[in-house]
Amino acid sequence: MRIDISNAELHNMVKRKGGLEVRKGLVSIKQPTADNLYVAGFSIESPFTTEVWHYLFEQHTITGVVTLRVYTEDFVELYSHDLGALDSKPVITHAVANNQIMINSPSFSTPLYGLVGGGIIPAVKTESENPDTTALEIPIGHTCSFGPRTAIAQGNIVYFNDASQTADPRTFVSQNANPLAGTIYDLFQGDDGALYMFTSAGVFYMAQDAIGKGQQVEGFIGMIPGLQTTKPRNAAASNGVVAVLQRGGITILGGKNQVIDVASYKGPRYYSRPTEVDDYRLSGEIFATAEGFIVGFRGNRGSGSSFFLDFNLREGYRSFVWPSGYSVNVVGTLRSRDNDTLILLDDNVAMYSGNYDALDESIDELYASACVDVDTPEGLEFMVRHVVTSSENVNGQSYVFLDNVTSGKSVPSRPGDAIIGTDDWTGVASGRRLRSTRHGFSRRLTNISLEVTFTGSGMSRVESGVDVQTKGQGRKRGNKR
To answer: I need a surface site. Which of 43, 45, 339, 354 has the fewest CB within 10 A?
Structure first.
């Protein structure tokens, strides 16, 4: 019986054109200043030079003071801005329109305003060019870009800036205040141009043509049935789709809005981490990346159970990522000029690079697992004799966990094999070969739940087909008919 593990629940594995592969290592490239933790961050590309600027917010662990630090792409600090003491782990959003940036949060006393790559100052309202309208004080709340305009959600009201000739994002008038049915947790413009608004009463949207009708934003506000969010960061847009966290998984908007069970494996575990979550909306936070999404999980999970989900739309896979012996708490995502994703953890800016995890002083080997519940005919028993895996982590370990029994063997090497850590290990290195490892069991089973694990270095290939060798099959014992 040959089992395809490419669509199994993956841990620290990725899909590439050649099949499955152990992910690259996670390494630290930037840390917050002493006694601070990152609470939010984002990257913006300069419209004139294509240079990327990183905006990082760090909060002092004792005083609660939040400081905005702006860096170049290589993390050379340009300037900082003190925001004072804020709520613990504030939700901070931004909008860019006409090369101007607005940074906002329900925790702020006033929004911030500036030019992309330039300085930041407190935002002060500017009067409307229309003599019949009076400018409001700039609302504090969640913000995003909506075409050339800036939208701010405060309570249950969405405000849009005035479409004057100067296109100043600091002019808001009462005519552009649109109330919704519930408290607004989040809002953003999807790749289809529509503005999506996530509230306590459901998910609403406004078509993109609403912004092109003069001073006022006017358009039909529709509701997407069957979706409910509970807090900020329950939704994100990337690669042409909108993903929404729901109680039992993730919903991709469009069609029937079916919930994807991202933790599909229900069998026993030994090396992989338990990934079951009671409610993704409550403990999860989703962030957009260049490749898709990252779902982080807040809560006291500890270094032995901490993980995040890499939902890669380009390559078509989902994989849980966790370094061994290190707790990961995702608070945002950044990007490079080449559109590579950087992961903003509360205590690190991390990137995928090299063969081993190095988020602190230690260097840790990777544990990569594929977990699958094999679909077998009901009422039949199988005598599982052997399980054969193939990988190229020579001199590393191959483990199989079946029916609460684990088998571990060293992946054999032969003369001429490239060995990770001692040889040149790239995608075209000569000597890379898949080597098979045979695990003996002799277990009589009606349901086959299989966990396959490989240890060692990143970037080693794994054969997506696993051979489960059985000796006959028959009716379940005790069934006399």
So the answer is: 339
